[in-house]
Amino acid sequence: MSDQDDKWNLDTAESAYVVISRYVEHTQISGIIIAMLAGALGEEKLEFLVNSEHWKNYMASRRELETAQEDIQKLAAAIERLRS
Fold this sequence. Notes:
Number of helices: 4
Shape: elongated
Oligomer: single chain
Strand content: under 5%
Radius of gyration: 18 Å
Order of helices and strands: HHHH
Number of strands: 0
């Protein structure tokens, strides 16, 4: 593998952005579905869900994704600079 293969370039930046954006989109859709399912469970069953370790991990993951939005925007800006 040459040094050229190791360098960050437009192709690798765009590939990274595509992968990241697909995961973000999937996570957003999953969040909507989870909210719909939680609503269908009803309030008494929902308490069990929100007190579970899985729910706490899910919410922590969502918060991390929200804070990653700035990094995603920086990546998009870097891609635009590489395109110029």
